[in-house]
């Protein structure tokens, strides 16, 4: 009902205009009222209501949605990932051979063996494409604006030399020569460098950009081990210019939608994190994944290597790390920075202390690309209430990567909502738990907020995959048939599927 009255039919301007019209024409309206009896008013009223419903239906039809569908900003955006043909790669890399490229003498960063991590980045406009390099010009991070404009060409290149991304640019030769000239002298690095780049986007056509590289100096108070450089890294921003003004508008509309989606997940995390662990309902789901609920699911050994895929705010990660006697290595991946920051704070006592020991390694990364993680490395991959948020192609990519990083005989455990999930029943159980513990009134606002987000934004996503569909996707990815399936977890509204990778 809220989405109906929030539609354009009932926007404030139209309502005010209608009231003004009634006041201005009250004399005529009053006379008409005296002329008409109730037998005429009832059909007129019904006709008015039917007209509103019909117009609303036409609006939904124009959006290619069935009547009654909630309109949200989770519209699908085609985000093609650009790749270079093998022959192009050979030609472009040949150009840089035997050239003194800054940073190429650096050894590769290893995700699990180095503690190098920017916990705080300089502020940047989220509408401006940006990325961050370390002092050796290796790619550390980038924002959604850059990923969207440049066809996700950064994906798969994290922790590699920025040269790997440079090859995608139309003017890569000029950019490489400029880099050698400006950044080749380590003793005289500029505070800021400006150059022009060009790129042909698959979605937004030709782009011209002014690239500004800002040097991030070292903080003396950090006592960093590497004393060979006074530079901690580089923050690069790109001011985009579009050949086609329509493409520019298209780009910013797409970007705003992506940012809104990211903000909803961030907002969601702030509320649900306060609620779920104050009940028995959610921890029971986590214990089921860990094999601790008297179900025929193997307990995760205390020395296992575990990938928490889509770790969110770290509730599952925290349980894995805090268990008495735990000697596990846990890699917790999520692409939402706010959720990862909550995870870091929640699990700070268990973060990995060195490159050899156990502990938690939080990683900001898309789960469809597990770049930087070695083949046949993990004993377990856990994915709690994540898969439902992905389109089917992304699920296929994700499961393919999971199979790659799992050891032979390793196991994937997936939870997600049933296709016929009853959210009202789930929230009723959560509320009952909170009321019994006397915590509901303190958490009422957060509870209602989570409930509203589920109803308004996530309801359609929650019903994306059935149990049989998920099993089909797992088997297609090369996993054995599930050795265990429970369709009654999470107060009967969720599914737990456990599969192994063939030995």
Q: What features would you describe in this structure?
A:
This protein has helices at residues 2-5, 12-24, 26-35, 38-62, 86-96, 144-149, 163-166, 172-183, 245-276, 281-290, 315-322, 337-346, 392-405, 423-436, 440-462, 467-476, 489-492, and strands at 130-134, 139-142, 192-201, 205-217, 231-242, 305-309, 329-334, 359-364, 378-384, 406-417, 484-488, 494-500. It folds into three domains: 2-62, no CATH class; 86-243, Beta-Lactamase (2-Layer Sandwich), CATH 3.30.450.20; 263-500, 3-Layer(aba) Sandwich (Rossmann fold), CATH 3.40.50. The radius of gyration is 27 Å and the shape is globular. With 503 residues, it is α/β, with parallel strands linked by helices. Residues 1-75 and 114-123 have low confidence and may be disordered. Helix content is 42%, strand content 18%. The two termini are 53 Å apart. Keywords: Membrane, Methyltransferase, Transferase, Transmembrane, Transmembrane helix. The chain crosses the membrane at residues 15-33, 40-58. Residues 301-445 form the Methyltransferase domain. One of its GO terms (molecular function) is methyltransferase activity. This is Class I SAM-dependent methyltransferase.
């Amino acid at each position: 009902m809220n989405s109906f009255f929030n539609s354009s039919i009932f926007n404030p301007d139209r309502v005010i205009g209608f009231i003004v019209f009634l006041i201005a024409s009250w004399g005529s309206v009053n006379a008409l009222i005296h002329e008409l009896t109730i037998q005429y008013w009832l059909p007129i009223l019904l006709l008015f209501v039917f007209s509103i419903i019909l117009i609303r239906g036409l609006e939904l039809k124009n959006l290619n949605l069935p009547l009654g569908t909630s309109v949200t900003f989770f519209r699908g955006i085609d985000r093609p990932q650009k790749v270079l043909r093998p022959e192009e790669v050979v030609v472009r890399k040949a150009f840089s051979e035997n050239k003194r490229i800054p940073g190429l003498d650096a050894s590769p960063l290893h995700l699990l063996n180095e503690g190098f991590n920017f916990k705080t980045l300089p502020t940047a406009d989220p509408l401006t494409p940006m990325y961050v390099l370390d002092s050796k010009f290796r790619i550390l991070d980038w924002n959604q604006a850059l990923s969207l404009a440049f066809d996700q060409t950064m994906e798969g290149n994290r922790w590699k030399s920025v040269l790997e991304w440079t090859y995608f640019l139309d003017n890569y030769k000029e950019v490489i020569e400029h880099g050698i000239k400006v950044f080749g002298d380590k003793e005289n690095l500029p505070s800021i460098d400006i150059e022009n780049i060009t790129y042909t986007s698959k979605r937004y056509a030709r782009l011209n950009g002014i690239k500004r590289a800002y040097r991030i100096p070292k903080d003396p108070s950090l006592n960093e081990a590497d004393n060979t450089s006074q530079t901690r890294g580089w923050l690069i921003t790109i001011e985009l210019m579009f050949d086609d003004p329509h493409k520019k508008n298209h780009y910013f509309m797409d970007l705003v939608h992506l940012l809104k989606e990211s903000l909803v997940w961030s907002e969601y995390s702030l509320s649900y994190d306060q609620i779920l662990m104050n009940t028995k309902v959610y921890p029971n789901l986590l214990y089921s994944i860990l094999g601790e609920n008297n179900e025929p699911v193997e307990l995760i050994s205390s020395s296992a290597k575990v990938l928490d895929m889509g770790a969110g705010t770290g509730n599952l990660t925290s349980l894995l790390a805090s268990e008495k006697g735990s000697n596990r290595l846990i890699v917790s991946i999520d692409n939402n920075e706010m959720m990862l920051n909550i995870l870091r704070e929640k699990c700070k006592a268990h973060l990995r202390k060195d490159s050899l020991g156990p502990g938690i390694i939080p990683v900001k990364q898309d789960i469809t690309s597990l770049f930087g993680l070695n083949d046949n490395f993990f004993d377990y991959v856990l994915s709690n209430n994540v898969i439902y948020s992905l389109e089917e192609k992304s699920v296929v990519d994700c499961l393919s990567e999971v199979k790659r990083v799992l050891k032979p005989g390793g196991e994937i455990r997936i939870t997600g909502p049933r296709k016929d999930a009853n959210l009202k029943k789930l929230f009723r159980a959560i509320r009952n738990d909170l009321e019994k513990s006397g915590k509901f009134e303190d958490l009422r606002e957060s509870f209602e907020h989570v409930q509203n987000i589920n109803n308004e934004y996530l309801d359609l996503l929650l019903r994306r995959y059935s149990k049989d569909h998920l099993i089909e996707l797992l088997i297609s990815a090369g996993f054995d048939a599930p050795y265990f399936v429970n369709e009654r977890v999470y107060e009967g509204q969720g599914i737990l599927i456990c599969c192994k990778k063939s030995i």
